[in-house]
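User: Please fill in residues for this 575-position structure.
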């Protein structure tokens, strides 16, 4: 039953209107003046208001303005009752928001016709508004489930898809979930800008879409991470599929003339026991991805239960690592570098070691990646640099030959905008001659943003220090860029050294690196030398220096000092 509020100061007219409305099946409420009418409208919220215009104190125009100014009553239809039919009066009321006019006295058919017409229009308006709200809500929900940058489904839709697969009555043999992550994507954003980073993500999404197509479900899990679900995937084909994804995704992106390269890693989980939750599968894939991710290496790994224990161990390491610097649990070890002409120590590489109070010596391969993730690698790396410079300065006082110290810089350290200033401050504080400091960086670090890299290296070179590329041959250096980089030395990676006498490829690559370095007039150091045969190979080919267990493993500072004082030479004669 619709409710009609009648606001009329003439009692006879008011009673007549009320009687007609009630006979037509409406619920009628009366108000003898404008003030009472507004109060009853706000209390009962009628479906329509019939209001006289000419009333003392608050007239019909005042009633209309008051109702339209309040959210609760602003959409209630209002029909004016007036004894006048002047066009100016009608226009004034319509401008204020009146819905219709009835001129008194009006017939029953005119009254009921006007009321019914306005109620139908109001019902249509409410229906249309409700539909629009429903459409807007549906669009919002769709938008919330679609990533606005790549137009891919979000994690929420992937969850729903996996839930449907796990509970579906259809017979399925297996479910495979792949979690793909772009390594160090923040470097692209910081080097080229977020707009370029967004384009890279869109290109990656497009490449993945072409691979996955109708065979699976692709979603963007977060900023630089994507998820893929496959059904009825053969267990034996998982690794081949992962490698295909990596091959497609990691091909260089050329944007605004910049060739942007990056690495990716994939975690895989597979089950033919269709139970558990979507989160279980995604967590397993993400855990596997986390443990296969290596800086500068594109690779994949499949989940197994041992990774859960490793993940728990990593979290414990993470908690202890945050306190290790404060507790002075780190120590710098040094591995000597020996000249291949004299057999004499000419330098040493500084390497950080963590002496945990209960775990003992923690491998750098265990804590360095965690330090990178937590951002602790910057203060830790700065501490290593300062400590190595202090030791090198002290050792110059009794060692007859100039003794260079090499310090590794992480990618995060190298990308500090104030790196040259920080290095200069440490050199001034420790008093070390800049010519005796060598900063070592990996190929992948140098190639992230070559122009920015060149700018930073030149600023460092102005200080008088030397630059060396570590683990050379394992990254993706462009020879054209290599010629532009202001570097002084190359270190041949130990992986080639180990394979010298079992791999023709290792020999060919080593020869190529040495010849190239000579052509560029770079100092050449071979690391990981463990046998006399390896020593002979690199000495015969003109390497300048070596380091490795054949002469000495990494040793603490006090042992390094003793070794320097003893002046033990490397035996270079090979039978």
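Assistant: Residues filled in for all 575 positions:
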């Amino acid at each position: 039953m619709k409710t009609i509020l009648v606001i009329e100061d003439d009692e006879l007219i008011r009673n007549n209107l009320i009687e007609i409305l009630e006979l037509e099946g409406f619920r009628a409420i009366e108000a003898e003046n404008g003030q009472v009418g507004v109060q009853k409208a706000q209390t009962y919220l009628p479906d329509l208001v019939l209001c006289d215009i000419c009333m003392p104190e608050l007239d019909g125009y005042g009633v209309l303005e008051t109702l339209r100014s309040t959210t609760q009553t602003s959409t209630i239809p209002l029909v004016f009752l007036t004894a006048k039919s002047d066009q100016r009066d009608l226009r004034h009321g319509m401008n204020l928001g009146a819905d219709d006019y009835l001129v008194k006295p009006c017939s029953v058919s005119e009254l009921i016709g006007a009321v019914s017409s306005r109620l139908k229009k109001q019902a249509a308006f409410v229906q249309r508004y409700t539909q629009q709200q429903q459409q807007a809500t549906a669009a919002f929900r769709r938008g919330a489930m679609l990533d606005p940058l790549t137009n891919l489904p979000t994690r929420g839709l992937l969850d729903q898809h996996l839930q449907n697969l796990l509970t579906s009555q259809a017979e399925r043999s297996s479910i495979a979930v792949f979690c793909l992550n772009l390594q160090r994507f923040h470097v692209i954003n910081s080097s080229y800008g977020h707009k370029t980073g967004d384009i890279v993500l869109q290109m990656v999404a497009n490449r993945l879409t072409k691979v996955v197509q109708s065979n699976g479900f692709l979603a963007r899990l977060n900023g630089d991470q994507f998820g893929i679900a496959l059904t009825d995937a053969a267990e034996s084909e998982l690794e081949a599929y992962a490698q295909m994804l990596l091959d497609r995704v990691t091909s260089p992106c050329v944007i605004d003339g910049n060739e942007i390269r990056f690495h990716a890693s994939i975690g895989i989980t597979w089950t033919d026991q269709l139970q558990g939750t979507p989160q279980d599968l995604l967590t397993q894939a993400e855990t596997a991805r986390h443990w296969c991710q290596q800086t500068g290496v594109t690779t994949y790994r499949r989940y197994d239960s041992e990774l859960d224990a490793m993940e728990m161990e990593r979290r414990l390491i993470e908690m202890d690592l945050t306190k290790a610097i404060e507790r002075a649990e780190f120590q710098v070890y040094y591995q000597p570098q020996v000249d291949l002409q004299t057999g004499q120590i000419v330098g040493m590489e500084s390497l950080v070691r963590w002496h945990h109070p209960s775990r003992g010596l923690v491998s750098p391969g265990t804590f360095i990646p965690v330090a990178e993730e937590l951002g602790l690698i910057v203060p830790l790396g700065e501490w290593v640099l300062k400590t190595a410079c202090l030791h090198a300065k002290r050792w110059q006082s009794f060692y007859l030959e100039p003794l260079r110290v090499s310090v590794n810089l992480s990618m995060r350290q190298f990308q500090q905008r104030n790196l040259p200033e920080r290095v200069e401050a440490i050199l001034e504080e420790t008093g070390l001659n800049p010519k005796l400091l060598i900063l070592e960086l990996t190929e992948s670090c140098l190639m992230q943003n070559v122009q920015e890299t060149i700018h930073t290296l030149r600023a460092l070179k102005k200080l008088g220090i030397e630059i060396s590329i570590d683990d050379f041959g394992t990254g993706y250096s462009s020879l054209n860029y290599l010629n532009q980089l202001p570097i002084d030395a190359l270190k041949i990676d130990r992986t080639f050294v180990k394979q010298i006498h079992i791999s023709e490829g290792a020999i060919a690559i080593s020869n190529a690196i040495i010849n190239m370095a000579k052509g560029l007039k770079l100092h050449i150091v071979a690391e990981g030398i463990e046998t006399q045969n390896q020593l002979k190979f690199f000495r015969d080919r003109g390497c300048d220096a070596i380091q490795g267990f054949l002469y000495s493993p990494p040793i603490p500072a006090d042992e390094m000092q003793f070794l320097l004082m003893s002046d033990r030479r490397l035996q270079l004669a090979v039978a």
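For context: The chain is about 50% helix and 20% strand.
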